[in-house]
Amino acid sequence: MEIRPVRREEAAGLRELRLRALRDAPHAYFASLESEERLPLSYWEGWATSKDKVMLVAVEDGTWLGMAGASVHPDRSGTVRLWWLWVAPGARGRGLARRLLEARADWARELAVAEHNEAAKALYRGLGFVPTGERRSMASDPTHAGIFMARPL
What we know:
Elements: E1 2-5, H1 11-24, H2 33-37, H3 41-49, E2 53-60, E3 63-72, E4 80-87, H4 96-103, E5 110-114, H5 118-126, E6 130-138, E7 141-150
Parallel strand pairs: 4-5
Antiparallel strand pairs: 1-2, 2-3, 3-4, 5-7, 6-7
């Protein structure tokens, strides 16, 4: 299994992976499937070319099994947010989520998670993240909230 940054020429593949994640677990993300489907290819290329963000993919035998992104917080100096952690259903239970999180540990200071996603919150707590008290409504289901968690480095 290789965990590596997505490459510019793989932008369409990243888009498809993200849409798979939104179809699989729409309740876990702040964005909706419909909003992500409308994004131009340049948006997805930005994950591979920006100095302020990174998207890691887990690849096994040429198949993308998961992703995890990180970006510099635009309003909080010295803070990085983690985005889009997802592992394909057939690859779950192998420690891949933990490996993806550890691969971006140098970036990691803050992440967002669906408030009702107990498995994800437990994983993050196990890696030293604690709730910040910040909450935001989920675009995928405005009746649910997401919370932010941070980890001191």
